[in-house]
Amino acid sequence: MEKFVSFLENNLSTPMAKLSEQKHLRAIRDGVVSALPFIIFGSLFLLIAFPPVSADSAVGEWAAKHIAEILIPYRLTMYIMTLYITFGIGYSLAQSYKLDPLSGGLLALAAFLFTIGINTMEGVGFVLPMVNLGGHGLFVGMLVSIFAVEVLRLCKTKNITIKMPDSVPTSVARSFEALIPVTLVLVVMTIITVVLDVDMHSLVDKAVAPLVSAGDTLPGVLVPVFLITFFWSFGIHGVSVVGAVARPVWEVYLANNSAAVAAGKAIPHVAPETFFQWFIWIGGSGATLGLVIAMLLTAKSSYSKAMGKATIVPSIFNINEPVIFGMPIVLNPILIIPFVITPLIGATLAYVATSIGLVSPTYVMVPWTLPAPIGAYLSTGGDWRAIVLCLTNIAISVIVYLPFFKMYDKKLLAMETVDTEVTADSKKIAL
Asked: CB of 381 within 8 A of CB of 363?
């Protein structure tokens, strides 16, 4: 067993952990995370516009009458989230290179805006189409953000900048230092978008279509679920590793789902990140709320009893590092098995239930610290069946964890008994 663990650490876990810290992937991750407050805020207005009540009720009729006004905050936040994300990516990547992060963020944002064609509207003038400012334009936003900051870094390292005298204020000097890279980036983007008339969004759509399609299948759900729990089993933050690659796809799904609801169309995707959060990671990665409940119900050892009482509140709010490192689950050959199996079962059940229409797909980003049944209800726009599915997965997690926990708890109890006997013998000898 030790050789197997060592092999996995050397050949998979350690390399993947290093990959998660790769500058560009980390910048993408940080950029997406930086936009989460805007995404959550905008999602809440989807709930107001489409309240979980009857359309014939007073609230339902009021929402239908004022839907255009209600959705304005949504359209200026979540609907154009790529604007916020590209700035965040540029800021984070520039900061990792020890460049001026503000210049990096602004340059990334400008490069992205240059991929958007400007139209004219009679009686209004020039208008900026919003369709590619949201999830649809996220992949292009990531690419041009990286390109923009890399040009900024190249100019800095090759000393291709305008140097100002030391007497010039720092903020002004930085602005002039960025002038040449800004010119280079925006000239390139102008040539691509205006001169060559290349629609980067259409090209990227075709390139990533297989990836987007694959991620919304059952295997596309099970693979990241397995990898996340696998990495956690070795003490590596699985969501940070896998999410760096998968989160952009999940964000596209969420944006597409919310846009479909706002447009009154069928919801297209089963598996945005909210699907994982509320139907799979109940209590945190590994669905460990089931383990904590099993501890509270059946623990015999004093350690397990104490852990159950200490971790139940954090687990209800999806914080499970105390469980993962406290039991521990990390490098624990007994608890690793249900830690990996439980979310795979929950993911399969949730995917089937959602894909055949028993539960509505998620389309609202609500705070991840909500108790799971509440989060599931709100993220589906008020589908009571989501609560049933969530509670069912909690029950399954308890059932799966229970025999493995009892086995582990029996070992802990035996160790405590031995320690007690040794302590008693020591006292006798001392007397």
From this structure: yes
